[in-house]
Amino acid sequence: MSNRMPWAVVMAVCVGLAACGPKPQTNPGPTIQALMAEAIDPSADAIWEAVGTVVSDKGAVDHAPTTDTEWKALEARAQTLFHASRTLASTRAVGGAAHSPLADADVPGTRTPAQIAADITANPAAFASAAGRLNDAARETLVAIKARDTAAILAAGEHIDAACEACHAAYWYPRGQAIPLPDYETFGRQAVNR
Fold first, then answer.
1. pLDDT tens-digit map of 22-45
2. At what angle do helices 124-147 and 150-171 cross, to 10 degrees?
3. 144/65 Cα distance (integer angstroms)
4. Cα dihedral sign for 100, 101, 104, 106?
């Protein structure tokens, strides 16, 4: 009798061990592009548009939510932004291939999905940190909305904008000379003085 294990037994053991390991993710969830298009961008736009001042030839008019329904709708948008930014931090595909190109894909120098994915893969912690900055700004927005503090909502909106611009500059915009990114307060002053 041979001391060798029959080939069929070895294969059965290998298949059995493989079945016990972690299963590949069959539904990786939305791509980065889908999160941006379906949740992050519309929610950020709603927050930016909810509070502000409209200046026309008739003068300046401040606007903000006034009813419970309007406040709840704004809070729902902030909640969507909060949860989508948390989802964004987890590993996922960039998107933008085949079914629809990334926004501004026709602008010369705009990063391709493959280039963006390579940058994220090279330093996933940096991308997670960028998503975390957006998540922090969304959390700040929720606190401001619950307090119905319009000045705090405006400040949080600046922080959302700064988080978005920092990430877009790092991963999406055409590459050129590096642009130093200001802190929240400096960004707010520069945005007002444009």
1. 444 445 688 999 999 999 999 999
2. 170
3. 13
4. negative
For residues 143 and 152, the answer to whether their CB atoms sit within 8 Å is yes
| Single-letter amino acid, residue 141 | T
Instruction: Give pTM, 2 decimals.
Output: 0.74
Which of the pair, 92 or 17, is modelled with greater confidence? 92
Residue 56: strand pairing partners: 59
Q: What is the DSSP code string of the chain? A: --SSPPHHHHHHHHHHHHHHSPPPPS-----HHHHIIIIIHHHHHHHHHHSEEEEETTEEEEE---SHHHHHHHHHHHHHHHHHHHHHTS------STT-PPTTTTSTTPPPHHHHHHHHHH-HHHHHHHHHHHHHHHHHHHHHHHHT-HHHHHHHHHHHHHHHHHHHHHHTSPP-SPPPPP-HHHHHHHHHT-
Closest CA to 45 of 166, 149, 157, 176: 157
pLDDT average, residue stretch 69-93: 95
33 closest CA partner among 102, 118, 109:
102
pLDDT 10s digits, 97-131: 544 566 677 777 788 889 999 999 999 999 999 99
